[in-house]
Amino acid sequence: MNLEAFCQSLPKLELHAHLNGSMSTNTLEKLYKMQNPNLEEDKNVVMNIDNFSSLSECFKVFDIAHSLTVTPKAVFCSTYETIKEFKEENVIYLELRSTPRAINGQMTKREYVESIIEAFRKCEVDFPSILVKLLISVNRKQGYEIAKENVELAIEYFKKYPRYIVGLDLSGDPMTGDPFLELLEKARTAGLKVSAHCAEISNETETVDILEFKPDRLGHCTCIHPDLQGSVRLFDMLLNSKIPVELCLTSNVQCKTVPSYAFHQFKYLYEAGHPVCLCTDDKGVFRTSLSREYEIAGTTFALSRKDLVNLCMSSVQYAFATSEEKNILSSKIEIFDRNVRDVIN
User: Which residues, other chains included, contact 88 with Cβ-Cβ below 8 Å and sequence gap of 6+?
Assistant: First the structure.
């Protein structure tokens, strides 16, 4: 089995996937047709998102997905299709994250969340091999009042759907807004897990604040190592925290927050023995898959197949799943590992 086939068949966990960035070309075209049933598809309108020159350009791409998910039906469809695609590449556990949106006269924030949950329930029946959870996102760019509203909504729906809604995600353009740490604390006190995008750009003061807050997981942590616009102080703080980091190789390279795969922060964290998990971030935007991210890591950092299996296994412990769910996930990876070794032997 070559590396590509191995990574495809490996039972994987995706812990950092934004719903609106994970929609594939096929899903976007389906949504476009749903919104414009009497018009021919204009693929230039739908998919003109191939080249980026900066992180800020990457964020602009989300406007396309947002323009196509303005009704509960569209949100259901986008969620269902995205889960289906992750299932097809043998992802056994998926945490989607999304910011609740209201569209005047078409959809409330509650309808947005309910549509996602409805898709989760449908996928439980249609795709029982994948377990799916939701993190409600707080977008820095939208300001404090909207962030507060979304945190309160997350707490409300966590109580209503604890089986599906497990955490809060701090995301959005890191060049705008603040991390709303007091709101994150409110969510944590209510029982929600917290994942925070951290150090996507160089900002030592904020990075220190987030590290001292100690979220359950961190996203990216790009500008923390001294070779990547960070500092020895920040890197030592991160290592001492033992907080798992969600790493998105292709996303960071395409957004040009790291110079290349070889110099991605994965290298420094993995070599230091820090807990990490491989993720896609936005598989639709960046034309990648979780299987592809494992393949890139294996090739770039000379990881053995056993190393890749171990990455999957350790990701189980970082997931916002129950102990029983983690046991089931671990068993699936163990069975795969055992079967592969039997074939080799």
Answer: none
